[in-house]
Amino acid sequence: MILIENIDNKKDDMEKKITAAITGIGAWVPDYILDNEELSRMVDTTDEWIMTRIGVSERHILKGEGMGSSYMGERAVRNLLEKTGTDPMEIDLVICSTVTPDMFFPATANLISGKVGMNNAFSYDLIAACSGFLFALSTASQFIETGKYKKVIVVGADKMSSITDYTDRSTCPIFGDGAGAVLLEPNYDGYGLLDFDLHTDGSGAPHLHMKGGGSAYPPTHETVDKKWHYIYQEGQVVFKAAVSNMADTALEVMRRNGLSVDDIAYLVPHQANMRIIDATGKRMGLPEEKCMVNIQRYGNTTTATLPLCIWEYEKHLKKGDNLILAVFGGGFTWGAGWLKWAYDGDKFAK
């Protein structure tokens, strides 16, 4: 009788849909803080100008020779593993989203895995600019949903200070450094990443890119002199595209899943610019209190903004909360996802 019941239980589990649930989140930011007062002594700007147009008060900057994105990613993963009590050898796969890899190869994910001791995992990097974390989360979820893997880590890590021109007042106040990481595990009760809508449009590349350093324009004295190894951004074009595309994809995900504004606990938007965040929330009809915001403390950390937001808000999250993730990045890349939170965050918050 017991044997038959066990077989029936296993059959029931197999028949249930597997979803990829976030079961833990970790993060790390550098100790050094570059505030607006110090920045105003480096470039022609003011705290008022920055707060009015961007909404950033301070940003964390990684200093030290040879320290790159893997340094921050390693610490975020260690924080995650410690919080969840997970053995590094249990991890099957690591995907790192970054636009500032330590080097072109090996992948930053490989370096993080090696430093942490995740020696049973295979790992690789994914580049989708500021949309990278959601793209990586969506990709990682497929490995869980097929039943291929049981424990997958997604890392978002960027050392944006390494590609920021601190003589360009239009871009240098925006960016900061940081890393976040989540653990994905199978779930049979309807929690996790339940839907996503991702897009790219290469015609947007001229408006937001870093021209130098790749195979088209390898590093030379000329490319360095032309500042092609720094972020280039046409603010007004990016602003319009970010607001419309983030809001439209978020609303589409809500529409096709029958979700109303009342059903949403939080919008988790890419922390690009406070005006973009505000405009996206308003376009979606969401009140301010339903929008995760921490850009004032970290700036735009590119692929790390989503996990840093969720990490900070973790203690407020309840099992079953509906989160809408919305992103936009260079390329152009953009998208949205519906995440049903899988645990009461106040039990595990930092």
How does CATH name the architecture of the largest domain? 3-Layer(aba) Sandwich
CATH class of the largest domain: Alpha Beta
What are the secondary-structure elements, in order, as H or E?
Answer: HEEHHEHEHEHEEEEHEHEHHHEE
Beta-strand percent range? 15-25%
What's the rounded overall pLDDT mean?
Answer: 95
**Shape annotation:** globular
Count of helices?
A: 11
Strand order of the largest sheet: 1-7-6-4-5
The biggest beta sheet is recorded as: 5 strands, mixed
The proportion of residues forming helix, as a percent range, comes to: 25-40%
> What is the radius of gyration?
20 Å
Number of structural domains: 2
Q: Say which CATH homologous superfamily of the largest domain is assigned.
A: Thiolase/Chalcone synthase
DSSP E strands, number: 13
CATH topology value of the largest domain: Peroxisomal Thiolase, Chain A, domain 1
Span between termini = 46 Å
Question: What ranges have pLDDT less than 50 throughout 5 or more consecutive residues?
Answer: none
Query: Which structural class matches the secondary elements?
Result: alpha/beta
Describe the structure.
The chain is α/β, with parallel strands linked by helices and 350 residues long. The protein folds into two domains: 2-190, Peroxisomal Thiolase, Chain A, domain 1 (3-Layer(aba) Sandwich), CATH 3.40.47; 193-347, Thiolase/Chalcone synthase (Peroxisomal Thiolase, Chain A, domain 1, 3-Layer(aba) Sandwich), CATH 3.40.47.10. The protein has helices at 2-15, 36-40, 47-53, 69-84, 108-116, 132-145, 221-225, 235-256, 274-284, 295-298, 305-313, and strands spanning 19-28, 33-35, 58-60, 93-97, 122-126, 152-159, 177-187, 192-200, 208-209, 232-233, 266-269, 322-329, 333-340. The strands form four sheets. It has a five-stranded mixed beta sheet with strand order 1-7-6-4-5, with helices on both faces. Strands 8-13-12-11 form a four-stranded mixed beta sheet, sandwiched between helices. It has a two-stranded antiparallel sheet with strand order 2-3. A hairpin with a 3-residue loop joins strand 12 and strand 13.
